[in-house]
Amino acid sequence: MNYYYITGTGNGIGKALALLLLENENNYVIGLSRNNAIKHVHFEFIRLDLSDFSQVESFQFIDIKDADKIALINNAGIIGEVKHIGNMSNKSIYQAFMVNTISPAVLTNNFIKAYSSVAVEKVILNVSSGAGRHAVEAWSAYCASKSAVDMFSLVADTEQNLSKVKYPVKVFSVAPGVVDTQMQTQIRATDKDDFSAVGKFVDYKNNNELATPEKAAGSLNKVLQNPDKFEDVLLDVREI
Prior knowledge:
Blueprint: E1 2-7, H1 12-21, E2 27-33, E3 43-47, H2 53-58, E4 69-74, H3 90-115, E5 121-127, H4 140-162, E6 169-175, H5 182-188, H6 198-206, H7 213-225, E7 234-236
Parallel strand pairs: 1-2, 1-4, 2-3, 4-5, 5-6, 6-7
Helix pairs in contact: 1-7, 3-4
């Protein structure tokens, strides 16, 4: 059996990826989210608020005896307030880093700790963003928190390559492209005074230029199923 932990399975890419994986009867998916819309014999929902440090820190990875593969997909993310620095609330900055950076880092740390002695294929896939690699006006907390995920992933992969365990963890940080999710809905609703480029994102939607969550999930799944085919830690769906 292959075990997949996925954060943010309530909607968007996380839900699409969970449903795709559940098409294989040899897969078992554990969804970590605030809400659930999936019912399947091989799906387990665990309510977890990634903005709450105490909940994330106390989450325990299960003891797995019959695994062929174990994977963690840190998918959940928020853009926070779309405003210029100086106009943002401090709470919004905290929440963006908590959900986008701190929670994935803590879960990654505990995943490696929990399964370091388990001699099976192990993968950590962090869903990053092109915004973590390019500055975007009014997205400071999102850009910075996703950039931090990229660097955390690079360091984790470097350490795993230096480790002496038989089955080190393969670590990736993947930018999924511009996907039709709730985040895009929030961006399009932003006032132009807060985000001068909002019209471009409205055009993405009107011109059907947004990728579907299902398409993005398919690209992420290619990495999960063929980790040895990808040498780089930082990936973009356009390269997959």
